[in-house]
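Ticket reopened. Same input as before:
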Amino acid sequence: MMSPGDVQVVVLMGGLGTRLKDITKECPKSLVDVCGRPFFDHQLELLTAWGFRKFVFLIGYRADMIEEHYGDGSTYGITINYSYDGEKLLGTGGAVRRAMDLLEDDFLLMYGDSFMDIDYAETLYRYERGKAEGAKALMTVLRNANRFDKSNVVMDGDRIALYDKHNPTQEMDHIDYGVCMYEKQLFESYAEDEAFDIAEIQHELSVKGQMVAQKVTKRFYEIGSPGSLAEFSEYVRKRFDESHPAVFVDRDGVINEIVWNDDIEQLDSPMKVSQLKLLPDVAEAIKTIKEKGYYVFVVTNQPGAAKGKTDLKTLYDINTHMIDLLEDQGAEIDDLFMCPHYPREFPQTKEKFLIKKCGCRKPEPGLIYRAMRKYNIDLSESYMIGDSCSDVLAGAAVGLSTVFIGEVKCDLCKRLGDISADYIARDLKEAAEIISPAE
Ligand SMILES: [Mg+2]
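Engineering reply: fixed in the latest deploy. New output:
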């Protein structure tokens, strides 16, 4: 398995930022001040938290300022190499081609003026899996319906069936999100000083069926215009400067139904996208919690792939589908944290990298810690809601108030030992009514 520490991140930073006028007269877009820090520092922090360490910055306009600020990367615990745009404007593709000598065989490419908070472990997994099936690139896409800009992508299962930013069609319902992965050799057929847009490569790959998709569920932010810069600044202030209480919600049995599994003849988590059914009133309950001022984070153990009952791709797909279904009903999840691990191997286990004694499988509180690293959470006012004792234990381990969903039976009381849930509720709707912000 590719891990972030091994994967090179290439960042397009050469743009002129003409729509920002006065702000970028003195400074390149990536360094525009957002809440007291240069814009790209916010994105870099996300990337280093995922474990990325190797960067190539493609710089042009005010390259000197970018190099002076980031240097060799050592103050960020990373290494940075620089590739310089020449006199001639080369476009995104030309800028990557120009950096050829610095590039590794596979790399992740993104823009230096966008904030993209996605599951990068999923990106690497899907890319590697796609390559094994003949793909040469990965594109992240967002279900769009012309929300942000014109939709430009048609999906076909895990593949991009068509990407065309110049000729939108009726069938297009997704938009390219801005994070991609490529094989370096895709750029080798272009001449060194040829100007071209990466969209050309993307279009061609989509037509050939050689680009896999990662469907992401959180909107991106960019700072291309004064309006979008103000919007992102407000987002950063709320997310990183202010602390907010959070409600951590278990998934199976709380948000969606557990289903009968014929193979093991007992109730189990959904192992296929088609098995995912939301429980009644869940979207309303999430809306209620959000209206009370809480973040809603889903924290879920999903050992199904580690046990060989399904694969990790399907587990990701199920989560994405759940988020889509909730969104259709106007309920937005702030983030989702999944533990796909299991401590021991089964005879039918295929994805053996999922076998480990981790710190994220509840009752361990690792998923909650992961959320704490990403958001400014007021733990003393936060809750954990779940239908098993491991949920209650994980919440109690970090001092959350706990709400148990269901009936507490005696065997459960024994397993919990000294720890008991603070509240008991029938379902998420009742739990949503129990939780309340401090006066
Ligand atoms: Mg559960």
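Residues 4-232 form a domain with the Spore Coat Polysaccharide Biosynthesis Protein SpsA; Chain A fold (CATH 3.90.550.10). Residues 250, 252-254, 386-388 surround magnesium ion (CB under 6 Å). Please confirm and we'll close it.
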